[in-house]
């Protein structure tokens, strides 16, 4: 099968394939077939399942679970609840998980899952029923030795707890290690909830350190104020950045003097959104991306920085908290303009790294301190960033391509060593 057949429509998977093709040109020491097979997910599951709603009616929902590669270990990747989830998005996110795990050197392959649903329209009871049924439907793939989900957009520790409990009920014993991002009370890890956002800050800090700069005094804008966005904003704020704008699905807030991020977090806890934060002016999500600032952190959905707006971005550093926020066309524009892009597969890899720590702790039934987790996380991310940076300098390529060269080489080498079965 040609490796270009899937490049027909522009979607997240098309973007992931274009990135892979770009990286493949620079990969050394592996046979072409070992790279070609990585263009395809290893296996895909689509599930359609009924859920009884509070009013007694029954609705049928569609969900997915995709395993991109099992070459380096069990598969790992989050579950997304969003009305625009589709199979191509899940395929792309699964492929990016394979790269991410290879870059940070943890023994996992990539997976991703999703359900086509707007969870804001469900009651808590409906959300639990949907989650438990989806968990049951994907349990033919999900297990602590083979495939371990985690939170993503619109899923959280409570949802992971329901997944673990459902799986455990079916097994007849408690299986902590089947899912990560759980509450601490149910085998969750200290530091998991903040890992992705802390990791975004560690990677920014390391990149700046190499340029003789610090975060202190720099101006930042953050799109998305969920798990990744709020903790990234808080982490750079605590390092002394002036965070002038943040946003969520309802809109953005802007204050050129800087926002008090702990107070914004309190406001969101109280009102459910960043909008109407006292002392701020409104901006749209599109305007936020173009505000004058040093560091832009997209931390919401994919496909936000495109050829339409890349030339107007004012930031000189973009740290990708979100997965796939930048299209390949925008990447080229940023490269031409000398804008530094800290790519998603490195910048937001803190989440999967601490998910790995959680899994190890669950398997050992022995838990680590918050300090140990934070220290190990920083070491892994700084080392991974530097490995990518070295390739980028050596091969004269941008950081995203360099990151994917490192990942593809590691995964394709595993393929070459395994050989082909039968
Ligand atoms: P989340 O559900 O906690 O938060 C998502 C945020 O984005 C919310 O503030 C939401 O209001 C906002 N949002 C949703 N739709 C939007 C839109 N159309 N425009 C602007 N804002 C919008 O999700 P999260 O876990 O923080 O994930 C955010 C991004 O980070 C995703 O791309 C996800 O894949 C990626 N990511 C998450 C993790 C993790 O550990 N949670 C790890 C790596 C990458």
The helical percent reads: 40-55%
Q: What would CATH call the class of the largest domain?
A: Alpha Beta
Tertiary shape: globular
The proportion of strand residues reads 15-25%
Structural summary, described in words:
The structure is a single chain. The chain is α/β, with parallel strands linked by helices and 422 residues long. The chain is 44% helix and 17% strand. A seven-stranded mixed sheet has the order 9-8-7-6-10-11-12, with helices on both faces. The chain has a five-stranded mixed sheet with strand order 1-2-4-3-5. The chain is globular, with a radius of gyration of 21 Å. The two termini are 19 Å apart. Residues 1-9 have low confidence and may be disordered. The protein binds nicotinamide-adenine-dinucleotide (NAD). Residues 151-154, 196, 223-229, 247-249, 285, 299-301, 321-323, 348, 351 line the site of nicotinamide-adenine-dinucleotide.
Describe, in short, the structure shown.
With 422 residues, the protein is an alpha/beta fold.
Core attributes:
422 residues; alpha/beta; Rossmann fold; 2 domains; five-stranded mixed beta sheet; 14 helices; 44% helix; 17% strand; disordered N terminus; binds nicotinamide-adenine-dinucleotide
